[in-house]
């Protein structure tokens, strides 16, 4: 019987920069890209984990992976890591803007203006900076950008105004940039994950009194009955970065297991009782 082959197994040798690649979805992307043959630079503030991952992926091959320290909140560091990637590979084919954070849930009253600005710097301004500095090089290779948005950037989420605003911004940036860069042959897309199971989420659940029950509860939100994996996120990013997606630009692809589909309870019965219909008079 013919050996089953992954669509991307080896042969994908694109020079790729992945921000926030030490852990979580970024590390899933690095794994999938390196397994497909890509030459990858991951950058992150977590140096120890990033260096260990890069070593492991290069040793496993067939691609290669290198780590560079970078705090994406600092545009000068973003510019530097792009230059380092160029110096290493001589070209840049793909930028995956992944570094980002979801702060703890709280109402708008509890977020300060400074909290909001800081989150925008991390989740949105960093993406703008990386695109800006990478594009002169991506235009030469007719490369592509994959941004990490979020399904809640489109849907909204309970007590997450700052996060949803930052991801909505990523979606708007993706669309506008896709329009501008089409004439240069550069594609710009976003993925919109729902719940992707990461070590960070498992660590958080471990600190909760009812962490296991919470974990099981979150798994029921998807029609698949589970969260996505970091490799599944990597697969979608790899597809969008590949020539197989050559006619796809400005897409915002949900990666959610169907969390946004169908109907279900939205408020508790007691909450509903305090929301009378507006007086029609
Ligand atoms: N996991 C999910 O369910 C989910 C859902 C929707 C969107 N996302 C988005 O996907 C991206 C990755 O999320 P994740 O869940 O894998 O997060 P994670 O916390 O597991 O990993 C984030 C990585 O980014 C790095 N990082 C954080 N701040 C940084 C900075 N200032 N400079 C450089 N690197 C930095 C961290 O060190 C870490 O390696 C984020 O943009 C997030 O908003 C995640």
Describe the structure.
The chain has 281 residues and is α/β, with parallel strands linked by helices. It has a single domain, classed as NAD(P)-binding Rossmann-like Domain (Rossmann fold, 3-Layer(aba) Sandwich). It is 47% helix and 13% strand. The protein has ten helices and seven strands. Strand 2, helix 2 and strand 3 (64-69) form a beta-alpha-beta unit. The longest helix is centred in the middle third of the chain and has 29 residues, at 113-141. It is globular, with a radius of gyration of 20 Å. The mean pLDDT is 94. The structure holds nicotinamide-adenine-dinucleotide. Nicotinamide-adenine-dinucleotide is lined by residues 19-20, 22-26, 44-46, 70-73, 98-102, 122, 148, 150, 193, 195-196, 198, 200.
Secondary structure elements and pairings:
Layout: E1 15-19, H1 24-35, E2 39-44, H2 47-60, E3 64-69, H3 75-89, E4 94-97, H4 113-141, E5 144-148, H5 151-155, H6 161-181, E6 187-193, H7 199-207, H8 211-219, H9 230-241, E7 252-255, H10 269-273
Parallel strand pairs: 1-2, 1-4, 2-3, 4-5, 5-6, 6-7
Bound molecules: nicotinamide-adenine-dinucleotide.
